[in-house]
Write a sequence for this structure.
């Protein structure tokens, strides 16, 4: 059974009651909006979007992204029907707040931007885990994401965010136009906090999986994502396949990953790595795109 981070709120009642405090009518989007991820995220997919986009299914019903992170592929696609989820409580609260009350988030972010310094940053790290107002939680989360080292999300064994402040002269804490654009796109989405294995599967839907990569950084939620979790994810992908849904998965090029998905279509692409604080340890590495389908126009 996958371990739970100690700081997570309950996955049902309490979470839903918090969300209810910022609930608003959701209206689906019908036009493409110039929106990009409003968070920096380790393993974000902006650099490989062309590779992902050309490998999408020709058609599908609802778009699912169970490891949401920054949501680069989602914001690029802007599907009419989307189900977005993540195990990270603060991340999902932030996406919901942007969808439902972007004005409130912007108001709080303006104050964070005006007060930013190291002392304020360290106080904000502690405040994130005591704040009860979902709008203020979202603003704190975005502020910390924009000002911490390398946009890294890491928690200690007790489940508390412990990333040091980054050495930025003028960090882009508030991008009001993009936040408003993201809010409009998110109106057509359902956003939930839970594990990938709790996602329902329906025939004809499309799943994009972007888990913590095998044998790389896994300090995302305090519980880790090791061999056991990767094996369970592969089993879930088997369920997706048997149910008649589509999936595309990004992961490291390791022997275990290749073994787990040997029955599916596996392709190698080159992707940037930027987690290390040392420039010589960053660069291009091979990673895998794995699918249970092939496009009829492949190779054209």
């Amino acid at each position: 059974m996958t371990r739970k981070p100690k700081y997570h709120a309950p996955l049902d009642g309490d979470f839903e009651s918090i969300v209810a405090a910022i609930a608003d009518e959701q209206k689906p989007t019908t036009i493409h909006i110039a929106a990009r991820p409003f968070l920096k995220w380790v393993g974000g997919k902006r650099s490989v979007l062309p590779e992902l986009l050309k490998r999408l299914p020709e058609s599908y019903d609802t778009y699912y992204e169970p490891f949401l992170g920054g949501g680069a592929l989602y914001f690029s696609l802007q599907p009419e029907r989307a189900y977005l989820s993540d195990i990270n409580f603060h991340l999902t609260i932030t996406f919901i707040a942007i969808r439902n009350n972007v004005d409130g988030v912007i108001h709080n972010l303006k104050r964070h931007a005006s007060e930013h310094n190291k002392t304020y940053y360290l106080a904000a790290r502690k405040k994130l885990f005591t704040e009860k107002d979902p709008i203020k939680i979202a603003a704190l989360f975005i502020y910390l994401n924009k000002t911490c080292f390398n946009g890294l999300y890491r928690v200690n064994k007790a489940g508390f965010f412990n990333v040091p402040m980054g050495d930025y002269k003028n960090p882009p804490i508030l991008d009001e136009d993009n936040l408003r654009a993201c809010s409009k796109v998110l109106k057509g989405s359902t956003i939930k906090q839970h594990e990938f294995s709790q996602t329902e599967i329906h025939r004809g839907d499309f799943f994009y999986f972007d888990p913590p990569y095998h044998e790389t950084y896994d300090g995302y939620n305090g519980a880790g994502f090791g061999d056991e979790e990767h094996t369970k994810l592969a089993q879930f992908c088997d369920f997706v396949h048997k149910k008649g849904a589509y999936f595309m998965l990004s992961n490291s090029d390791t022997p275990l990953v290749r073994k787990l998905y040997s029955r599916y279509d596996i392709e190698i692409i080159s992707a940037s790595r930027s987690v290390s604080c040392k420039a010589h340890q960053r660069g291009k590495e091979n990673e895998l795109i794995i699918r249970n389908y092939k496009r009829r126009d492949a190779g054209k």
About this structure: Residues 1-13, 24-29, 275-281 have pLDDT under 50 and may be disordered. The chain is about 35% helix and 15% strand.
